[in-house]
Amino acid sequence: MEPSPFERPRRRLMSDMNVVPYIDVMLVLVVIFMVTAPMLTQGLKVELPEAAADTINIDSEEPVVITVKADGGYWLKQGSKADKRLSLQDMIQALHAVEQAQPKVQILLNADTRVDYGKVVKLMAALQQAGLTRVGLLTDSPEP
User: Fold this and answer.
1) Domain covering 64-137 assigned CATH 3.40.50.300 in the classification
2) pLDDT in tens, 11-50
3) What pTM value is reported for the model?
4) Per-domain boundaries in the chain
5) To the nearest 10°, the Cα dihedral for 51, 140, 106, 85?
6) How far apart are CA 79 and CA 97, in angstroms?
């Protein structure tokens, strides 16, 4: 029997998976993450002084960051907790509590360039009198 000229030949079903839509979705997600990642950083805006200094080796898992803003206010950042504005006495008490929980805690001082020098010295003296000696100063690297 001859095949009829009016009959179409049967096609085989394609069993391959089309991955193009998945690649499109992946590329869109990559772009979204690239745009949103810089917005996820949190912190207080300070202008750090520039200094050519060696980097600090941090021994503790999560250092405690004390920020002195341009208005002279003291802020405490502990791990992933939000920044808290504290008076100098409350700051020392909070740091003593942290030191009791983590004896090798590293304290980093982050001060704005416009802060009065006396504010920073007052903080450093209070930390020293309280027996908190593992203190580091944060700076920006100078532009080459």
Assistant:
1) no
2) 777 778 888 889 999 999 999 988 888 776 555 565 656 6
3) 0.57
4) 64-137
5) 120
6) 14
